[in-house]
Amino acid sequence: MILKTHEDYLRLFNTDSTQGDNEEISDLSMQEKALDRAWKNRDFEIEMYWKRATYFWAFTAATFTGYILVLRFHQNISVPNIELLIAAMGLLFSISWYLVNRGSKKWQENWEKHIDLLEDQITGPIYKTVLRRKAPSVSRVNMKVSLFVTFVWGYLVLNHIFPDSETVFSLNIDFRKSLIILLLLYFILDVTGVIKFIKEKLLGKDNGVIFDKREINYNPNNVE
After folding, report:
1. With b meaning 16 or more CB within 10 Å and e meaning fewer, what string describes 189-217?
2. How far is Cα 107 from Cα 49, in angstroms, rounded to an integer?
3. Which member of 66, 119, 155, 187 lies 3.0 to 4.6 Å from 148 by CB, making a disulfide possible if both were Cys?
4. Alpha carbons 33 and 27: distance in angstroms, whole number
């Protein structure tokens, strides 16, 4: 069941159930309980988001430290391709970090949308009435940093696989310097919102919210 409108969503809380001495449960009572659960789940997702971020930050720092130490003392290490191995591990875990960030952000936003849809008749629109002032999203900045770290590890892996790739398509362009410049440029444009602005202008922006009710045959892999 796909829920596209506010009315479709609130219709889920219509009930004819009874409680105790056959006293009817009001729709508003169900919405109050649902709002309270949504707040708790939202706070839990935020707490877990930053716990996971701290874990990946620590691992990334340790991996970079190990990589630098190996480069510094590689002549004393007998393990072949140890630099490539560490860089590949860093790439794998940075990709995981980025994907975990996306998953955590999705569930945080899920409960925030529930709050938006439930709060009007219970507490008023206090949560979705926000100060009109542009500011970066802290969690999204963290997501962009994890993506940038992924690019860095990807560059290091390519640097070890293709150590002699000094030019691009036989042109007089330094491959490594060009890649670093492109990574920095992409990161700056992404964090400052320029890329998002361009995407919205080219592809259009859909501000609608669509929920998919979890049924027996619900498959989260079919949901964006």
Report:
1. ebbeeeeeeeeeeeeeeeeeeebeeeeee
2. 10
3. 187
4. 10
pLDDT in tens, 119-162: 988 889 899 888 888 777 888 888 888 988 988 888 888 888 77
Tokens in use for 60? 């990334």
SS3 track for 173-188: CCHHHHHHHHHHHHHH
CB neighbour burial string for 119-148, b if at least 16 within 10 angstroms, e if fewer: beeeeeeebeeeeeeeeeeebeebbbbbbb
What phi, psi does 12 have (nearest 5°)?
-65, -20
Q: Would you say 29 and 13 are in contact if contact means Cβ atoms under 8 Å apart?
A: no
For residues 195 and 148, give the distance between their C-alpha atoms in angstroms, rounded to a whole number: 14
Q: Which band of pLDDT confidence, cut at 50, 70 and 90, is reported for residue 112?
A: very high
What are the Cα distances from residue 20, in Å, to 15, 17, 27, 195? 15, 10, 16, 56
Q: What share of the chain is helix, strand, coil (3-state, %, to 5)?
A: 65, 5, 30
Distance of CA 129 to the CA centre of its chain: 24
Say what the pTM is: 0.73
Tokens of 120: 């009007």
Phi, psi (rounded to 5 degrees) for 171: -90, 160
**Confidence (pLDDT) at 49:** 93
